[in-house]
Design a protein that fits this description.
about 130 residues; mainly beta; globular; 11 strands
Length: about 130
Amino acid sequence: QVQLVESGGGLVQAGGSLRLACAASGGIFSSYAMGWFRQAPGKEREFVAVVRRSGSSTYYADSVKGRFTISRDNAKNTVYLQMNSLKPEDTAVYYCAADRNPIDWNGSYYARQEVYDYWGQGTQVTVSS
Protein backbone atom coordinates (compact mmCIF):
# COMPACT_ATOMS: atom_id res chain seq x y z
CA GLN A 1 0.00 0.00 0.00
CA VAL A 2 1.36 3.38 -1.00
CA GLN A 3 1.57 6.03 1.70
CA LEU A 4 1.99 9.73 1.03
CA VAL A 5 3.03 12.14 3.77
CA GLU A 6 3.05 15.90 3.19
CA SER A 7 5.16 18.39 5.12
CA GLY A 8 6.28 21.99 4.95
CA GLY A 9 3.02 23.81 5.50
CA GLY A 10 2.71 26.74 7.86
CA LEU A 11 1.86 30.40 8.29
CA VAL A 12 3.45 32.94 5.96
CA GLN A 13 2.83 36.55 5.04
CA ALA A 14 1.55 37.53 1.65
CA GLY A 15 4.42 37.71 -0.82
CA GLY A 16 6.36 35.05 1.02
CA SER A 17 7.38 31.54 0.03
CA LEU A 18 6.94 27.99 1.26
CA ARG A 19 8.19 24.66 -0.01
CA LEU A 20 5.97 21.66 0.46
CA ALA A 21 7.27 18.11 0.29
CA CYS A 22 5.45 14.82 -0.13
CA ALA A 23 7.31 11.65 0.76
CA ALA A 24 6.08 8.38 -0.70
CA SER A 25 6.59 4.86 0.59
CA GLY A 26 5.33 1.37 -0.20
CA GLY A 27 5.35 1.58 -3.98
CA ILE A 28 7.39 2.33 -7.07
CA PHE A 29 7.48 6.11 -6.85
CA SER A 30 9.28 6.62 -10.14
CA SER A 31 6.38 5.00 -12.02
CA TYR A 32 3.71 7.38 -10.67
CA ALA A 33 2.53 10.70 -11.96
CA MET A 34 2.37 12.99 -8.92
CA GLY A 35 -0.02 15.86 -8.37
CA TRP A 36 -0.81 18.55 -5.83
CA PHE A 37 -4.33 19.66 -4.98
CA ARG A 38 -5.68 22.09 -2.42
CA GLN A 39 -8.92 22.69 -0.55
CA ALA A 40 -9.82 26.04 0.95
CA PRO A 41 -12.44 26.36 3.71
CA GLY A 42 -15.92 26.02 2.28
CA LYS A 43 -14.65 25.17 -1.19
CA GLU A 44 -14.15 22.05 -3.23
CA ARG A 45 -10.73 20.53 -3.63
CA GLU A 46 -8.99 21.88 -6.73
CA PHE A 47 -6.04 20.96 -8.89
CA VAL A 48 -2.75 22.83 -8.42
CA ALA A 49 0.01 21.08 -10.36
CA VAL A 50 1.20 17.72 -11.69
CA VAL A 51 4.56 16.30 -12.72
CA ARG A 52 5.25 13.43 -15.06
CA ARG A 53 6.87 10.34 -13.60
CA SER A 54 10.22 11.22 -15.18
CA GLY A 55 9.95 14.85 -14.07
CA SER A 56 10.31 16.01 -17.66
CA SER A 57 6.85 17.56 -17.97
CA THR A 58 4.64 19.63 -15.69
CA TYR A 59 1.21 21.22 -15.83
CA TYR A 60 -0.29 23.95 -13.63
CA ALA A 61 -3.58 25.52 -12.77
CA ASP A 62 -3.84 29.02 -14.19
CA SER A 63 -4.17 30.45 -10.68
CA VAL A 64 -0.64 29.35 -9.70
CA LYS A 65 1.19 29.44 -13.02
CA GLY A 66 4.37 31.49 -12.77
CA ARG A 67 4.35 31.41 -8.96
CA PHE A 68 4.45 27.70 -8.07
CA THR A 69 6.89 25.06 -9.27
CA ILE A 70 6.40 21.32 -8.96
CA SER A 71 9.41 19.00 -9.05
CA ARG A 72 10.38 15.53 -7.95
CA ASP A 73 13.38 13.57 -6.79
CA ASN A 74 12.85 9.93 -7.67
CA ALA A 75 15.95 8.90 -5.72
CA LYS A 76 14.31 10.31 -2.58
CA ASN A 77 10.74 9.23 -3.42
CA THR A 78 9.66 12.82 -2.90
CA VAL A 79 7.69 15.42 -4.82
CA TYR A 80 7.95 19.13 -4.02
CA LEU A 81 5.85 22.22 -4.49
CA GLN A 82 7.77 25.47 -4.34
CA MET A 83 5.31 28.29 -3.71
CA ASN A 84 6.43 31.87 -4.25
CA SER A 85 4.60 35.20 -4.18
CA LEU A 86 1.95 33.69 -1.98
CA LYS A 87 -1.44 35.34 -1.73
CA PRO A 88 -4.14 35.07 0.95
CA GLU A 89 -6.27 33.17 -1.57
CA ASP A 90 -3.63 30.42 -1.58
CA THR A 91 -4.69 29.54 1.96
CA ALA A 92 -5.82 25.91 1.95
CA VAL A 93 -4.99 22.39 2.95
CA TYR A 94 -2.59 21.05 0.32
CA TYR A 95 -2.70 17.39 -0.67
CA CYS A 96 -0.37 15.33 -2.79
CA ALA A 97 -1.70 12.47 -4.88
CA ALA A 98 -0.31 9.63 -6.99
CA ASP A 99 -1.52 8.00 -10.19
CA ARG A 100 -0.08 4.49 -10.36
CA ASN A 101 -1.00 3.91 -14.01
CA PRO A 102 -0.09 7.09 -15.87
CA ILE A 103 -1.13 7.43 -19.47
CA ASP A 104 0.82 9.13 -22.23
CA TRP A 105 1.36 12.65 -20.98
CA ASN A 106 -1.63 14.97 -21.11
CA GLY A 107 -1.45 17.65 -18.48
CA SER A 108 -5.13 18.57 -18.43
CA TYR A 109 -6.07 14.92 -17.88
CA TYR A 110 -4.26 15.07 -14.53
CA ALA A 111 -6.33 17.98 -13.31
CA ARG A 112 -9.10 15.46 -12.62
CA GLN A 113 -9.14 14.10 -9.07
CA GLU A 114 -10.57 10.75 -10.11
CA VAL A 115 -7.34 9.97 -11.97
CA TYR A 116 -5.41 9.54 -8.73
CA ASP A 117 -5.19 6.34 -6.73
CA TYR A 118 -3.47 7.49 -3.55
CA TRP A 119 -3.76 10.61 -1.42
CA GLY A 120 -1.91 12.11 1.48
CA GLN A 121 -3.50 13.55 4.61
CA GLY A 122 -2.71 17.14 3.72
CA THR A 123 -0.72 20.01 5.14
CA GLN A 124 -2.16 23.39 6.08
CA VAL A 125 -0.89 26.53 4.34
CA THR A 126 -2.09 29.87 5.70
CA VAL A 127 -1.18 33.15 4.02
CA SER A 128 -1.83 36.29 6.02
CA SER A 129 -2.49 39.65 4.40
